[in-house]
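Entry:
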Amino acid sequence: MTDEASTKPMLDFNELGDTAYVRPGYLHEHQIVPFSTATRCRKSEAGTFPSPIKISTNIIAFRVRDIREWQKDPANYKATTPCDFKLITKKGHKASRGNQK
């Protein structure tokens, strides 16, 4: 017996509606962002990449609308919603700006 959810192909980013949400892994798997997870976290905290939405305690996602806005002009993008929580990379380290003690 196969798990039907695992056999369905993921939607292409261009097929998603503006109100959809995507998880961080989706952004990297589909090469939507050209940088690492740690860099994405730093950029979100700095306001130069869209801020994720906290869905639950351990789940964050990005609004497709925000990612598309960033794609239009990545160099000049300014987030309209500040990142209001510390982002944690997959390895469990805080994405920080340099060595903080």
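The longest strand covers residues 59-63.
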